[in-house]
Amino acid sequence: MKTPRATSKQLSSIEKAKPIKCGTFGATSLQQRYLATGDFGGNLNIWNLEAPEIPVYSVKGHKEIINSIDGVGGLGIGEGAPEIVTGSRDGTVKVWDPRQKDTPVANMEPVQGESKRDCWTVAFGNAYNQEERVVCAGYDNGDIKLFDLKTMSLRWETNIKNGVCSVEFDRKDVNMNKLVATSLEGKFHVFDMRTQHPTKGFASVSEKAQKSTIWQVRHLPQNRDIFMTSGGAGSLHLWKYEYPAQRSKKDSEGAEMGVAGSVSLLQNVTLSTQPISSLDWSPDKKGLCVCGAFDQTVRVLIVTKLNKV
Amino acid sequence: MRCARAGLARFYSSLKNHTLDSPWQCCQVSVPPFLFEAILYAPIDDTNSTAKIGNGIIFFTLYKKEVAMWDYLTLSNANKEKLQYLRENAVLKSHEKAKEETEAKKVTKQEHKKYTLEATMKLEEAERKRIEDLKEKERLKVMKELELWRKEQKDSEKQKRVQKEEELCQEAEQLKEKKKEKMNKAAIPNEGTSETRLKPTKGCGSFSMFSENLKEERLPAPRSAATIKINFTPRVFPTALRESRVAEEEEWLRKQAEARRTINADLSELEDLKEEEKNPDWLKDKGNKMFATGNYLAAVNAYNLAVRLNNKLPLLYLNRAACHLKLRNLHKAIEDSSKALELLTPPVPDNENARVKAYVRRGTAFCQLELFTEGLQDYEAALKIDPKNKTIEKDAEKIRHLIQGTPQDS
């Protein structure tokens, strides 16, 4: 991994009233390029960056900070309506359609009287046709819940014993294949999502990468078996997943059960002493990625020789 | 003996281990148990002289320091003192020489070490430089590729834009014609909605609007809203779950539970109670359940027992006050609410809810006893803690009216 020596130029700086926690381009078309953001006050806004004074869409979606946001249906990836999902400290996960004002199209909230847990991360997946959609949410008490938006039900849940910092499907727009969930204490789990066992759920393999929190995971857009994790010690790790010989087998009662593969570390680098909290790959140039860290720097990196992996 | 140059000494002795000591004037050979010593006539050159030992023969090859004729080989007529002096001198000098030699060896060794160290450092430097050069080359290559790719992107984008403009122009033309036809048929043009929604940004803005319109007709309608109710894996602590902290947390919880259990466990009546009935928390839960089903007397009993076990839990008094209210034991309700408030000091945001309830219950009891001013005081205290609660406000208003109403009557 290398850092190109060129310097970047800031094109513009826009400031809004409340601090912004997260953002995504996932639900807009390539022409519109609207940025959907979630801020510390629980507001979801969609901005036209050419005219940022007034948001194109705005709603006070949550009572507390929106920790995580994801979009699907835009950027020419996937099918179906554009939708945005937000997860908040108030324990709810809400799915929004930018064409419908004020009310979410889906709301995953705790039962009456249940004490709420922080939702730390959300991700879309399984958007391979116009009806199917799945939302995965990770919480601070280690819960991972998978919601099916077509049947509006909870499809699967599990607990990985550490607060879940980041979840991502390897591809949003295919039949759900793999899900990576990263957590506190330096662990991450890779779930094989093709085979769901009625009681055991999905098969998984887990790996302890480092001692500090793994803040984010991102799959390479050009190869869905390679992903990068960013850590609390300022390091980036590049991993490759290998499928097992047989992805599913029958258990003693004849039900189909998934088989998890293995994960191997390809490369790692330490860029900073502070956590790298956010990272993303370029969809156009293979290996180009950008990461932001707590030391107030944005770094652009290139990973070479990915063709030979 | 008279000799011309070197001396030959023949000796027959058992030669086992021998130490040779040949300083400048003394010649000593020690072959235990024999010792050969010869104080020579004049100093000899130590470094070049040698002695070969073997076969029962010692063969000395001694070189004179100054070329001269010796009268004798040895100083046989030397007195004892001189001999002694010479011997000591010899020993000293030999020691000194040995020292110097070791010193010299040390110095050379150090120099050798230095040299090797420098050599290895140079090698490592070279290796590092080689790796750095490789990296640098890779970097330059990648940068060039990136530049090329960027250029390509720009060029292709330009081309695409030009193409699209042409296409859109054609499409717009077609659509305009279609719309003209429609307008001729229907009276109301329907363009208003689409144009106001998207702000045209550049010259081609209006064209992209039309293509967006076409696309939107292909998207499905927004989903019908629904809610999914979820349950969380229970966790007492508000902080996130970490595996490394689980042991600590369990320990803390266990200690808390123990601390709340029987404080005065030596009450004789408690001997025949079951284990769980001695736990104030369990009793409180039981009391709550009975309150919910309407069995207020039984709830009071449960709370009574719990209080006997641990009289420091404010919630017990609070809930018992609610039971008494239902049973119309108003004085007891007031007592219990007051006790609960006492235990709920210091007033912090955590026990806000409990305090509001205590005030409201006491206020209700006062009002039912027709002590409206005291009741109003309590309601206002409750309102101070939780100003947004509408029921409390309404009730406070009612009481105020009652107060204003009664003085007129009496």
TrEMBL record, chain A:
Swiss-Prot/TrEMBL keywords: Apoptosis, Cytoplasm, Repeat, WD repeat
Predominant location category: other
- Name the encoding gene, please: WDR92
Return one Gene Ontology term, BP aspect.
apoptotic process
What organism is this sequence from?
Columba livia (Rock dove)
Q: Which InterPro entries match?
A: WD40/YVTN_repeat-like_dom_sf, WD40_repeat_dom_sf, WD40_rpt
| Name of the protein in its database record | Dynein axonemal assembly factor 10
Where does this one sit in the cell? Dynein axonemal particle
Q: What does this protein do?
A: Key assembly factor specifically required for the stability of axonemal dynein heavy chains in cytoplasm.
CC per GO annotation? dynein axonemal particle
Classification via Gene3D superfamilies: YVTN repeat-like/Quinoprotein amine dehydrogenase (2.130.10.10)
What are the ranges of the WD repeats?
84-97
Q: Out of the domains of life, which is the source? A: Eukaryota
